[in-house]
């Protein structure tokens, strides 16, 4: 089963989760890393289970959280 969840969406930041039975991928990381980790924790997903991050484009509302190490 495929799960798609909007973590953050808007002009201040975008981040989405795509999850299958064995893979979790973030699409964009437009908010702080702490906010992303907190949102994932709210879904019972450990940041260490994220397989990768797909960046759709280089605007700050899509990449802000990438400057931090997850």
Question: In words, what does this structure look like?
Answer:
This protein has a four-stranded mixed sheet with strand order 1-2-3-4, covered by helices on one side. Strand 1 and strand 2 (15-19) form a beta hairpin. The chain has one domain. The chain has two helices and four strands, in the order E-E-E-H-E-H. By secondary structure, it is of the alpha+beta class.
Topology readout:
Layout: E1 3-8, E2 15-19, E3 24-27, H1 33-42, E4 52-54, H2 60-63
Parallel strand pairs: 3-4
Antiparallel strand pairs: 1-2, 2-3
* Gyration radius, rounded: 11 Å
Number of helical regions = 2
Order of helices and strands: EEEHEH
Mean pLDDT: 92
Largest sheet entry? 4 strands, mixed
Q: Tell me the count of domains.
A: 1
Strand fraction equals 25-35%
User: Could you tell me the number of beta strands?
Assistant: 4
Instruction: For the record, give the distance between the C-alpha atoms at the N and C termini, rounded to a whole number.
Output: 26 Å
Structural class: alpha+beta
Which stretches are poorly predicted, pLDDT < 50 over at least 5 residues?
A: none
